[in-house]
Amino acid sequence: MSATFQWSESNGSSETVTDGITNLNFGSTDAPNLNASSYPIVAGENSYEKFIRGKFSGTFTQISNMKFWKSAGDYKPGESIKAAANVSYSTPTSSTSTIATSDVPTSSSTALSIQAADGSNTITSPGYTKYICLQLQTTTSTPAGAGNTKTFTFQYDEI
After folding, report:
1. Burial (CB count within 10 angstroms: exposed 0-12, middle 13-18, buried 19+), residue 17
2. CATH code (residue 104)
3. Residue 106 to residues 41, 110, 130, Cα–Cα distance (Å)
4. Average per-residue pLDDT in the chain?
5. For the chain, how many structural domains are there in total?
């Protein structure tokens, strides 16, 4: 057997966890699996923060060397995605994030190293990683309309 991976997103002031999310769309509300066109981000404003984490299930010996980065997709003018790894959950905000303050890495060589929920660098039984906080930020020069599709990569070693 091998590990099964899925993304989980946490939302709300009392943390509601949704395992197996189907998209990581950013928007003007705090909810998983957003239809971004229903919750547009006004130029010069930010999305709500996204608190995501990986969830491993199945039978495996060890998951290690976990990395996260944006591997594809162009930014629109005035747009950026900020990130922070291995953080604790807090109520998502659309104010400029004080957690996600660095540009999300764009290559495997600069990827964020992700820890297990217990703070170690390995997962040895089914469970979660620590949180990754993301926020899409715009400026008043960001053009209206849908954002460009971006691909995030989560890579890990399994034994």
Report:
1. middle
2. 2.60.40
3. 23, 7, 20
4. 97
5. 1
Q: Shortest CA distance to 53 belongs to which of 156, 159, 147?
A: 156
Taking CB atoms within 8 Å and a gap of at least 24, the contacts of 18-25 are: 19/55, 21/52, 24/50, 24/52, 24/134, 24/152
Region 126-143: mean pLDDT is: 97
pLDDT in tens, 86-131: 999 999 999 999 999 999 999 999 999 999 999 999 999 999 999 9
Q: Which residues pair with 96 in a beta bridge?
A: none
Q: Residue 147 — very low, low, confident or very high, per pLDDT cuts 50/70/90?
A: confident
The full DSSP string for 108-132 is GGGPEEE-BTTSSSEE-SSEEB-EE
Beta strands in the chain (DSSP E): 3-11, 16-19, 50-58, 63-72, 80-87, 102-103, 112-114, 122-123, 127-128, 131-137, 151-158
What's the chain's length in residues? 159
94: containing domain: 3-158
What residue has token string 């057997």? 1
3-state class of 36 per DSSP?
Answer: helix
